[in-house]
Amino acid sequence: MAVIEILLRLLEPSSPSQTLRGLHRMNARAPWIYEMVPGERRTDPTSGVVYEVNRSGFRDRDRALARPDGTFRIAVIGDSLTFGYGVALEATFAARLGQRLVRLDEPTFEVLNLGVSGYNPYTEAELLRGVGLGYTPDLVLVQFCINDLNDPTLHFDTSTMLTLGAIPDAALPDPAARARRPAVASDGLARRVCSASRVCSRIADAIAAHAAHDELVAALAPHETPSDAEIAWLAHLYRRMARDTRERHGQLAVVVFPWSTQVARDAPAPLQDALAALGVREDILVIDLLPAFRRAAAESAAPLFLDLWHPTARGHAIAADAIFTALACADVLPGVVTDCAR
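Above: the chain sequence. Below: its structure as tokens.
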């Protein structure tokens, strides 16, 4: 085993499977359960993508807590799509939106990336209330992905080798469908040793990948047509986020990302329809990116996704352009005029 461990370290100075490990830590004192570690840095040896966490615990450049005078500040909250898994920081849709806005005249625009891998609307709502609103954003963009309707431990445990454990029922759209996993101390000695070992990590990855695939297939299937309970759960959390934001004199919008198999076929989108109806009922702007992704797929065969739901750099660019247009056409961005014909 020692010889194999040495050979693996010589052949692979960095392990692709450990790219995200070490970026996160549990926080039992915070209602958002876990967070990223300020100052941590990881490089994906396959793609060369660098994940670097700023002093505030986000994948972004350091930002002043106080909003600069004359600045329209946008805070983007979400999961690994917002975080920018698989792409460079400057290629994320939040960064691209900021790049497009910075070229405009007054006011000055600033876009903050507060995405954390594995988050869902529950943890996003808690982070917004506890941290995000401290930046006094004029606009909050909350990113939605279909995996928001899954048990959040399915993604977090596999990619970080931490265990969320007994998360509150309120964090799941359907607590009865909670994944039944053995309780494992996330900071236990055996788990830390396994995370540091290439041999143990490979074995754990192989087991986890098979289990996660089966769980994800089972969890994802029914959610293209969301249940009334799932929509009610989303409505409660988005309503809360909108209320919290309005109390601080801001506005909230929900950005709905499609998934790859949805873009590849011309079929009804009941989940997007349900979220659009939710937005009308709750007076929340809902931005559906599916039409933009379908147009882009028809125009070019260049990939829009790295996997089932993570966009490529091109996918992030398509998202940023569509978000910009939707916000401008909804008169959310002061002084911004664009063509709203499409």
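Confidence is low (pLDDT under 50) at residues 182-186.
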